[in-house]
Write a structure and sequence with these properties.
- This protein is of the alpha/beta class and about 400 residues long.
- It folds into 2 domains: about 5-75, no CATH class; about 105-380, no CATH class.
- It has 13 helices and 12 strands.
- It has helices spanning about 5-25, 30-40, 45-55, 60-75, 105-120, 135-145, 150-160, 170-175, 195-210, 240-245, 245-250, 330-335, 355-360, and strands at about 85-90, 95, 125-130, 165-170, 225-235, 250-260, 265, 275, 305-310, 315-320, 340-345, 365-370.
- An 8-stranded mixed sheet has the order 4-3-12-10-11-9-7-8, sandwiched between helices. The chain has a two-stranded antiparallel ribbon with strand order 1-2. A two-stranded antiparallel sheet has the order 5-6.
- The longest helix is centred in the first third of the chain and has 22 residues, at about 5-25.
């Protein structure tokens, strides 16, 4: 078991104090200290707001971050930002550590949702989207801590399976196809890659065939049918921006689009319809390698598809309830069925009536496609993911 070099954190602190004072005096950031004391005196300090303001006013803040990153990398401080949920594995991959949770809330919500869908004759498939590790013990080996994310997921899937909910576990698909979990993900970001989104869409299409009577030609997902453009050492993920490029380096990126013509009706959130192609789902202007990696748009979100009708496919009307992983999954699934509508429930408030939306939409299948860390989000009412299993 590896032991973190906690003693060296003192050295890092001492080494950086001088930087903080110099940078603060040059930029005026130390004046934020007055706000810190004011907030603490209020009894309800918003420290995260103050921290953000300080960081944004620091003179040459990126240079400061890079210096900090270099020192931490040199000293091997893998969990320096654990308060932000960021841990760096020895191979440079950034991962999360997750507590044990009851699956009661997710289980009850899922079964109630299935009963509703059964009543209106709509199929339900739950799709488990993996994270960067499928064996929780690797976290103990790296950090001396316990993560329960795969154990939580095993418990939830077993329970819904025994209750009659159809599900596919992409962890099993990884094993079947000979992939290591990390191969699906960026090192510096918690999202999976574009090619992983296409791969996941193929597994969802297979499940639609197996469990819902669809007749999708799975050869549609073969690489030979796509134009693939690769960018090397080009972008820094959301988590990478926390720990710094000097620590974890840059990620590669692959843009994937069909090599054949496509014909879509693209439906916006207000119900407007316009003609388009798959190319309209990809904003390639994001792939600008001349822009500073800390300030450029997030490359993962260059894919953007919410609701579309594929005029080249006759059958299949799917509502995909997903998360941000599915930004790069939904577009590829749309190549296989007539209609795909992709919603992220955390983007809607309590006034949104999901069940009436499903009735009005006339869908024949609902796919609930969630990254494993959505299980247990109900434990934190302040989490953006709290709404994800509210299927009312």
């Amino acid at each position: 078991m590896k032991k973190n070099i906690y003693a060296n954190k003192t050295l890092v602190t001492i080494a950086l104090i001088v930087f903080i004072i110099v940078m603060g005096l040059k930029s005026g950031s130390l004046l934020v200290g007055e706000k810190v004391f004011s907030e603490i005196a209020s009894g309800n300090p918003k420290v995260h707001v103050i921290e953000k303001e300080f960081i944004e006013t620091v003179h040459n803040r990126i240079g400061f971050l890079e210096a900090n990153s270099f020192v931490r990398s040199t000293l091997g401080l893998q969990d320096y930002y654990k308060n932000k949920g960021v841990y760096v594995m020895s191979d440079g991959y950034i991962v999360g550590v997750y507590p044990e949770t009851s699956t009661d809330y997710e289980y009850e919500q899922t079964l109630d949702f299935k009963a509703f869908l059964d009543d209106i004759d709509v199929n339900l498939i739950y799709v488990n989207e993996p994270i960067k590790y499928v064996d929780d013990s690797c976290i103990t080996e790296e950090f001396g801590m316990q993560s329960y994310i795969n154990a939580n997921t095993d418990k939830y899937l077993e329970r819904i399976g025994e209750a009659g909910v159809t599900y596919i576990d992409l962890r099993d698909s990884l094993k079947d196809d000979g992939y290591l979990p990390k191969e699906l993900f960026y090192r510096t970001d918690h999202h999976w890659t574009v090619s992983s989104g296409k791969w996941a869409a193929s597994k969802m299409a297979g499940a639609l065939n197996d469990y819902c009577g669809y007749n999708i030609d799975l050869a549609k997902f073969d690489d030979a049918n796509y134009e693939i453009t690769e960018y090397k050492n080009c972008w820094l993920g959301e988590q990478g921006k926390v720990v710094g490029e000097s620590y974890v380096g840059l990620d590669d990126y692959t843009c994937i689009k069909p090599a054949y013509n496509t014909d879509y009706d693209i439906i916006d959130k207000n119900g407007g319809i316009r003609k388009g192609t798959f190319d309209d789902f990809v904003d390639e202007s994001v792939y600008n390698t001349e822009i500073d990696v800390y300030n450029c748009p997030r490359w993962h979100y260059s894919y953007d598809m919410h609701h579309c009708i594929n005029n080249d496919i006759a059958n299949g009307k799917v509502l995909l309830l997903g998360d941000s992983y599915d930004v790069v999954t939904a577009p590829f699934l749309s190549l296989a069925v007539n209609e795909v509508d992709y919603l992220v429930l955390r983007e809607y408030d309590k006034s949104f009536d999901l069940r009436q939306y499903i009735i009005d939409g006339g869908y024949d299948t609902v796919l609930v496609c969630y990254a494993q860390f959505m299980i247990g989000a109900h434990d934190d009412v302040d989490s953006a993911n709290y709404r994800m299993f509210d299927f009312k």
